[in-house]
Amino acid sequence: MYLDHAATTTMRPEAIAVLDDAFARFDGNASGIHSEARRAKNALEEARERAAALVGAERPHDVIFVGSGTESDNLAVMGGAFASGRKTVAVSPIEHKAVIGSAHALKRFGFSVVELGVTRDGVVALPVDVLASAGTLALVSLMLVNNEIGTIQPVADLAAEIKASDSKVLIHTDAVQAFNSEDVSLMSTGADLLTLASHKVGGPKGVGLLALAPGVRVDPIIHGGGQEAGRRAGTHNVAGVLAMVAAMQASHGDRERFSSAISAERDAFEKAIIAGLPTAVVTAHQSKRVPHISHIRFPGVLAETLLIRLDQAGISASAGSACQSGAVEPSHVLDAVGFTTEASGECIRFSFGWDSPPGVGAIAAVTVLSVIGVS
Amino acid sequence: MRALVAMSGGVDSSVAAALMIEQGLDVIGVTLKQWEAADGSMPVAGCCTLSDAEDARRVAAQLDIPYYVLDYVEEFTAAVVEPFAEGYLNGLTPNPCIECNRRVRFSALLDRTKELDCDILVTGHHARVEDHDGVFRLRTAVDGSKDQSYVLHMLDQFALSKIRLPVGEITKSDVRAKAAEMGLRTASKPDSQDICFVTSGDYRDFLAQRHPEVAAPGDILDVNGDVIGEHKGTAGFTIGQRKGIGVAVGSARYVVDIAPRAQTITIGTYRDLLTDRCLVDEMSFTDLAPPSGETVGVKIRYRSDPVAATIVGTGDRWEFRFDDPQARPAPGQSLVMYDGEFVLGGGIVVDDRSPAHSVQ
After folding, report:
1. Where are the domain boundaries for CATH 3.40.50.620 in chain B?
2. Using CB atoms within 10 A as the burial measure, which of A48, A136, A286, B114 is most buried?
């Protein structure tokens, strides 16, 4: 049973079909002047139009195709800060490492970084209005859905609050985990910059996008041939972009079914776990959460070995964030929402996906409980 | 039967895993991540590096076994790295690999063996474990030149009953041949030498960062206490060292004392270094403790042969009397007792500079 869809989800058949077709038909370099190039360029721009519509970008030009969600975060935070002319960025402590890492990289360019506070429910507490009113704040990055615990951040409210103090502050939101179930658009989030990753919505790995609100500029962080209107150099991954947009379309059309069906699986899963093991605690269960992520603490059970035992029993799940060696490391997100190191080492993230079969929640719970030894 | 194989990314543990599979066992491979750089990344030099974990992972993939990396950074830092640095501050020459085996590695791995429903723990050490009618004995490796029984002396009956050391039964060249025959990518990988947490330069630089006083220059004294030269930091020295002292006095001189807090070292002749006894702390035994009065073989350095010594004290602190005077072992190193090829146990050499016992 694959319960690690938040790490990467199954490719949607629509995306696979497009990939196969695109590799054959759009083999040209989209930046060339000949017929092959024009064909590829045309397909790419059509995809850009569809992507812009899906994320509520006013013009297709406001969608920048990049190589990953991580690259999109880097371009938003660094490129947005560079273009703003101001010298401070603020990030929430539960952001993805791509955002936190980018913010810290800005220090080398003379920026200061403000780390915002966060409540136990994973909602950012704002001292930003103070900063914003000082007129020095370039950008605030606020994750729409946290990738570890699945909480939904009220980005629109926070964005409105910040903009009320200073309309020039850029709001970036990493919406990578939100797209399958939430209304993700520049308007609904109030964001100026919005990040998506292909492989989280059923597209191939190695593609992502950054959508911009009207008039928002980013300076390039990858330099070269001037592709993407000078904002992201590098030969276009035409097939990848087409497949990502096909997956986004499929995911968008599947949103309602996904939300109700996957919520039902998740609820059945959590209910069965708690019934079998009353000491287990679902993280942020009273908060607004996306349907596909279930983050559970099993007190007294070491997550590191439980994950291995689950793997042996055929359940793929995850904990914390895997470091480059593959070891499970303490989670900076759990640390930020007030977990002790011990508690954080007892947590596992189970995540469902668009192709999770009906009944998987209940079946998975039985296996998890038996692996823990309480069946 | 299911085996947990500790894979370091070297050729020995790769072959150990392969041999277990050949014997029909279910095998799970694990690597303990013990050390990381300040930014959380794994070291790129030393023995427990990122590329070693990658090698282990790829060998596991080649053997088609599950493989995991377990995080032991915190335990390792507390139990091995800090005491290592602290030891130098006290004039000791610690052996971090032995301290890791004693305090972290085997207890962690044996815990995981149980938690992951494995029956045995397998490592790639060159030594043998033999079942003598229910008594498990730790024996030197078939390949004497690669024997690692010294660093395993702390294993007790419970540990030995769970541990298998398949490569100790064959020579190193057979290990490499086996790896080559199976096409394992680690077949010709060189043996690791470095201390795993010293990632750049040598251990002196590492110590200098943690405890600058052991890297500060100071006086070199003779046995009468007269200053005869200057050194570049006490961490650069170990008891018994002859080379690289930096003082020329005609005949050979050896380090006979290190005083890190006074920042001095004392040098003397080989005779000044000789002692007929050795005090040892933290003794442990593979089975029953040998009685006082018994003569055993004792290895006081990793790469030297055992010498005969008689046990003369067996309290909290054991005392051994050498049959023939020996160059004083460096405090912090291990003394390991042997009965022929069998390991009886061992402990940590403590400072012993009572003049009554030095051979004049």
Report:
1. 2-181
2. A48
Its domain, for residue A332, covers 255-372
Could you tell me if residue A6 is inside a domain?
A: no
Superfamily of domain B2-181: HUPs (3.40.50.620)
B50, B71, B116 member nearest A308 (Cβ): B116
Q: Which of B70, B112, B115 has the CB atom closest to A327's CB atom?
A: B70
Q: What is the pLDDT confidence band of residue B43, given thresholds at 50, 70 and 90?
A: low
Residue B236 pLDDT exceeds 90: no
Same structural domain, A171 and A108:
yes
The answer on A264 and A219 residing in a single domain is: no
Nearest-neighbour CA in chain B from A150: distance (Å): 25
Question: Is pLDDT above 50 for B47?
Answer: no
Residues A175 and A318 in one domain: no
Burial of A336 (C-beta count, 10 Å sphere; 0-12/13-18/19+): buried
A79 CA: distance to closest CA in chain B (Å)? 24
- Put simply, the answer to whether A329 touches B40 (Cβ < 8 Å) is yes
Q: Which of B101, B118, B56, B108 is nearest to A302 (CA)?
A: B108
CB nearest A308 (choices: B42, B68, B71): B68
**Residues of chain B contacting residue A335, judged by C-beta atoms under 8 Å apart:** none
A265 vs B124: CA distance, rounded Å: 45
CB contact under 8 A, B53 and A325: yes
**Residue B118 among the catalytic residues:** no
Mutate which of B36, B39, B67, B70 to test chain A, going by most A C-beta atoms within 10 A? B70
CB B232 within 8 A of CB B217: yes
Residues A63 and A51: beta-carbon distance below 8 Å: yes
pLDDT tens-place string over residues B182-211: 999 888 888 776 667 666 567 777 788 888
Short-list A10, A268, A271, A6, CA closest to A149: A6
Q: Which two tokens stand for residue B207?
A: 């110590």
The pLDDT value given to residue A121: 77
- Give A269: exposed, middle or buried? Use CB within 10 Å, 0-12, 13-18, 19+: buried
Nearest CA in chain A to B55: A325
Confidence class for position B54, pLDDT limits 50, 70, 90: confident
pTM as predicted: 0.85
Q: Would A128 be classed as within a structural domain? A: yes
Q: Cα B358 from chain centroid?
A: 27
Tokens at residue A140, please?
């605030």
Q: Determine, for residues B71 and A311 on separate chains, whether the beta-carbon distance falls below 8 Å.
A: no
Q: What is the dihedral of CA B185, B190, B195, B197, to 10 degrees?
A: -30
Residues on A contacting B at a C-beta cutoff of 8 Å:
302, 304-305, 308-309, 311-312, 323-329
B281 Rama sector, left if φ>0, alpha if ψ -120 to 50, beta otherwise: beta
* CATH code for position A240: 3.40.640.10
Residue pair B48/B162 in contact by the 8 Å Cβ criterion:
no
**DSSP-assigned letter for residue A192:** S
The CATH architecture one would assign to domain B272-357 is Beta Barrel (2.40)
Q: What is the pLDDT along chain A (375 residues), one digit of tens a residue?
A: 999 999 999 999 999 999 989 988 888 888 888 888 889 999 999 999 999 999 999 999 999 999 999 999 999 999 999 999 999 999 989 999 999 999 999 999 999 999 888 887 778 877 666 666 678 899 999 999 999 999 999 999 999 988 988 999 999 999 999 999 999 999 999 999 999 999 999 999 999 999 999 999 999 999 999 999 999 999 999 999 999 999 999 999 999 999 999 999 999 999 999 999 999 999 999 899 999 999 999 999 999 899 999 999 999 999 866 665 667 777 889 988 889 989 999 999 999 999 999 999 999 999 999 999 986
ipTM score for this prediction: 0.79
Beta bridge partners of B183: none
